[in-house]
Amino acid sequence: MSEIKAPAFNDTAEQSEKLQEVIAKYKGTEGALIPVLHEAQSIYGYLPYEVQKKISEGLDIPMAEIYGVVTFYTQFSIYPKGQFNVAVCLGTACYVKGSGEIIEKFKERLGIEVGQCTDDGKFSLEATRCIGACGLAPVLTVNDDVYGKITADDVDDILSKYM
Q1: Mind giving me the DSSP string for the chain?
Q2: So what's the pLDDT on residue 150?
Q3: CATH number assigned to the domain covering 84-160
């Protein structure tokens, strides 16, 4: 498996200012980390190392704790998402019905690994656990669009809708 490489981080003055406002709003508040991470991810779209470091310094919380929270909760991402985020369910029902082959086909077609974003920023790929649509297994989503009862042969048709 190839190593996931983080893209260069570009921080605008506006984003940095908004983050500092969020940190100031929550500084000294018990349980502030998760709300700050949510707002920071809204500002940047993801939580790269540099943003985590600013939060660590601003809230006086160790980086290890921040990284642990960010990597534990699936709603947080340390990598940017593409314009079209492809999420393939690997829950038991979907996996038994072929979602492993489907995700492999997406990796091949997009030229990325799970957790990565294409160089043009158009697609990102993630593996999810049960999304609660087991009757449609195997299931995947592209942003808010849901595709059920698919096979690896459907991947090209699905991607063509977003090209």
Answers
A1: -PPP-PPPP---HHHHHHHHHHHHHHTT-TT-HHHHHHHHHHHHSS--HHHHHHHHHHHT--HHHHHHHHHHSTT--SSPPPSEEEEEE-SHHHHHTTHHHHHHHHHHHHT--TT-B-TTSSEEEEEE---S-GGG-SEEEETTEEEES--GGGHHHHHHTT-
A2: 97
A3: 3.40.30.10
